């Protein structure tokens, strides 16, 4: 039993394999957070369960550590719920009403306003094996009048009594997503958020908090990730009384909405966790959680080829067939035609929205290419960008009223496109219909779903349509509903989430997406940093990485084919180069690497990731993947640049069995046998020299 109520103490405990999460109802009826961390005896927390006063300036300090509080009375922290009643009252006083334990791992608390029938249910679900707790809330309007919801957060996490607080998060931009940052939390707020309509490349709804001293292998880390693919907000607020509260949910920015009588709002899920074993364990717990609880399937990612960097919009059936021929020779399992196959899509200036096959590019229909691809033993996949429209398109000419726009202004064009108001029922239906036609008519097994711009002018010119700010939420609700429906109708089709790279990856979309395109930057060196940042929160099981050209188009950097493969083998492998132009030697070399990847793929995608060394603070990056049974490891090492004849370094490995013997094999064929303890204390020698060198080492337990 992971959840329990201690009646004598009026305390609740959520216990996972390694952690305790404790709260209680104090004498004033406040649901006071008491403890979150390594396991303790819950009833011992009773002595901290009492309201605290300081002065008439901070009248109710315990309300700052409330599990979930309405804005009203003496409440000055970032509110979890802020409402306006129809009679003008803006004070919400939530009273604890009771609890219900569901099964082994779930508990819900019922709260209600002291006067109005506005009910709130706070849901907790323990994931004991990964030391995580999923939280969300439901708000029900039992009044006969509408209630305006001004802010409703999914959860409040409290981290108490650290001498110092450090917050780690990611930031970035297009082609440079998932850059790690950390910042000291002093009194006040640190806000991570998106106001761009989707998750965003500039931030991601994941955080970690520690005392400034945790590292990859040690130290207490509290962390969380929110599952919402629209505007979101995570606020870390340090109070003047020493604790930090992390509040997260759908962003309240421009998003007040109305709950009509009887209506229920359900928030996204905000998962939180604690580990005393540093950032590495945090990531492994999140990765396993995604694989076991979030992702729609547990299939291994297929090796794919994608046409984008090779042909961009210049798609022709002959060109694609030639690429497919080479891809099949390399051992590719899924051939994906990216942008440029439909409508009058010869550049990014036209065609978006016209989801019919371009007859000049495919005079015999798409079937000709699909048959060719299937004949070569591969699956066929297709790119779409359903939420977008070029003004130069039949769709826009037929339905100019479907785009986000305010009646008195022009819509801002980004990449020459506008966005469809997916919150409108007719737009949702249009997307469902054309996707259903495509997936019914053609044998398509994979969809890459892109979105190449942010939301602007979030209004509508449709007469009679409600132009309120709830469109931010409706867009995401409808998007999720479309994906859910398509998955249901086409269970054999896999989906990739992409937004000009990694701008829509979060635990919300990952409930529907099998894999994620994490950046348009495919330079293998830049990718190491992007992939590392990504790995803090998200699993290699979804992380798609392509091998592309050298020198790279973005920065002119030349990298060996082996380095490019090693970098891309650390997640789901793809090839995105113009392989029609590759030499026989390059193709043969690549074929060997694809074969090798298929051997190690289960360890990479299903295993445990250990970040041994980072280019953020070293000249060498090293990442180890262990199979779940710890019988096999794959280690990738990358030397940035050798200096002053520096000695070969050894990297102690992690997570092996000390007493077992292992065979160690480098990718140039050297083999030796080492004891687990040797590998974990002395390590594997790297023998890397020069610039941009890489090496893969395989370690197998000898039975
Ligand atoms: C952005 C994506 O991230 C790219 O991979 C590619 O699909 C282009 N869009 C196509 O327009």
List its traits.
TIM Barrel; binds (2R,3S,4R,5S)-2-(hydroxymethyl)piperidine-3,4,5-triol; 3 domains; 703 residues; single chain; Beta-galactosidase, Chain A, domain 5; alpha+beta; 19% helix; 8-stranded parallel barrel; 38 strands; 11 helices; Immunoglobulin-like; 10-stranded antiparallel beta sheet
CATH architecture of the largest domain: Alpha-Beta Barrel
Major β-sheet annotation: 10 strands, antiparallel
- Overall structural class, as computed from helix and strand content, comes to alpha+beta
Number of domains: 3
The percent range for strand residues is 25-35%
- Under CATH, the topology of the largest domain can be stated as TIM Barrel
CATH level-1 class of the largest domain: Alpha Beta
- Residue stretches low in confidence (pLDDT < 50, at least 5 long) are none
Helix content: 10-25%
Number of strands: 38
CATH superfamily of the largest domain, please? Aldolase class I
- Overall morphology: globular
The pLDDT mean sits at: 96
Evaluate the radius of gyration: 27 Å
Instruction: Report the total helices.
Output: 11
What are the bound molecules? Answer: (2R,3S,4R,5S)-2-(hydroxymethyl)piperidine-3,4,5-triol
Distance between the termini: 37 Å
């Amino acid at each position: 039993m992971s959840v329990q109520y201690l009646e004598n103490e009026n305390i609740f405990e959520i216990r996972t394999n390694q952690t305790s999460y404790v709260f209680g109802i104090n004498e004033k009826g406040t649901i006071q957070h008491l403890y979150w961390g390594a396991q303790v005896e819950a009833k011992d927390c009773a002595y901290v369960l009492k309201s605290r006063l300081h002065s008439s300036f901070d009248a109710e300090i315990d309300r700052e550590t409330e599990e979930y509080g309405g804005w009203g009375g003496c409440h000055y922290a970032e509110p979890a719920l802020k409402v306006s009643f129809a009679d003008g009252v803006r004070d919400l006083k939530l009273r604890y009403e009771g609890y219900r334990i569901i099964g082994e791992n779930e508990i819900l608390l019922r709260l209600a306003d002291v006067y109005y029938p506005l009910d709130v249910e706070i849901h907790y679900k323990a994931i004991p094996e990964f030391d995580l707790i999923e939280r969300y809330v439901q708000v029900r309007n039992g009044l006969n009048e509408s209630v305006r919801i001004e802010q409703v957060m999914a959860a409040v996490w409290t981290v108490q009594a650290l001498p110092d607080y450090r917050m780690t998060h990611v930031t970035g931009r297009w082609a440079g997503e998932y850059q790690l940052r950390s910042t000291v939390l002093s009194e006040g707020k640190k806000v991570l958020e998106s106001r761009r309509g989707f998750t965003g490349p500039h931030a991601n709804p994941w955080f970690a908090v520690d005392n400034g001293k945790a590292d990859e292998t040690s130290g207490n880390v509290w962390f969380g990730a929110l599952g919402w693919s629209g505007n979101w907000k995570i606020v870390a607020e340090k109070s003047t009384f020493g604790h930090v509260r992390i509040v997260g949910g759908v962003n309240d920015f421009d998003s007040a909405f109305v709950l009509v009588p009887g209506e229920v709002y359900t928030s996204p899920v905000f998962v939180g966790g604690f580990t005393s074993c540093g950032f590495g364990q945090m990531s492994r717990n999140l990765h396993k959680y995604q694989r076991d609880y979030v992702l729609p399937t547990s299939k291994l990612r297929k090796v794919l080829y994608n046409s984008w960097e090779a042909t961009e919009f210049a798609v022709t059936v002959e060109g694609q067939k030639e690429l497919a021929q080479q891809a099949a020779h390399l051992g590719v399992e899924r051939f994906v035609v990216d942008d440029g196959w439909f409508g009058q899509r010869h550049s990014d200036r036209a065609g978006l929205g016209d989801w019919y096959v371009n007859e000049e590019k495919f005079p015999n229909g798409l079937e000709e290419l699909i048959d060719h691809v299937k004949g070569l033993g591969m699956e066929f996949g297709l790119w779409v960008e359903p939420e977008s429209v070029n003004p130069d398109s039949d769709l826009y000419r037929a339905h100019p009223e479907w785009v986000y726009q305010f009646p008195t202004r022009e819509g801002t064009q980004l990449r020459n496109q506008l966005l469809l108001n997916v919150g409108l029922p007719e737009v949702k239906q249009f997307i469902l219909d054309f996707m259903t036609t495509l997936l019914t008519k053609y044998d398509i097994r994979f969809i890459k779903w892109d979105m190449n711009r942010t939301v602007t002018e979030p209004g509508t010119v449709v007469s009679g349509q409600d132009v309120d700010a709830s469109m931010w939420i409706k867009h995401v609700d409808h998007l999720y509903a479309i994906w859910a429906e398509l998955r249901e109708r086409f269970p054999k089709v896999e989906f990739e989430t992409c937004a000009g790279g990694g701008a829509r990856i979060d635990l919300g979309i990952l409930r529907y997406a099998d894999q994620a395109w994490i950046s348009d930057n495919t330079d293998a060196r830049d990718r190491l940093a992007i992939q590392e940042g990504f790995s803090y929160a998200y699993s290699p099981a979804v992380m798609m990485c392509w091998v592309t050209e050298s020198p790279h188009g973005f920065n002119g950097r030349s990298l060996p084919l082996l380095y490019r493969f090693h970098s891309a083998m650390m997640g789901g492998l793809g090839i995105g180069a113009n392989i029609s132009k590759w030499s026989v030697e390059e193709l043969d070399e690549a074929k060997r690497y694809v074969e090798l990847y298929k051997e190690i793929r289960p360890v990479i995608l299903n295993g445990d990731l250990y970040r041994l060394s980072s280019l953020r603070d070293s000249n060498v990056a090293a990442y180890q993947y262990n199979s779940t049974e710890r019988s096999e490891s794959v280690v990738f090492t990358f030397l940035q640049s050798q200096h002053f004849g520096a000695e070969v370094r050894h990297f102690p490995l992690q997570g092996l069995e000390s007493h077992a013997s292992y065979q160690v094999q480098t990718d140039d064929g050297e083999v030796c046998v080492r004891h687990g303890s040797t590998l974990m204390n002395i390590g594997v020698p790297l023998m890397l020299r020069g610039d941009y060198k890489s090496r893969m080492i395989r370690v197998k337990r000898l039975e």
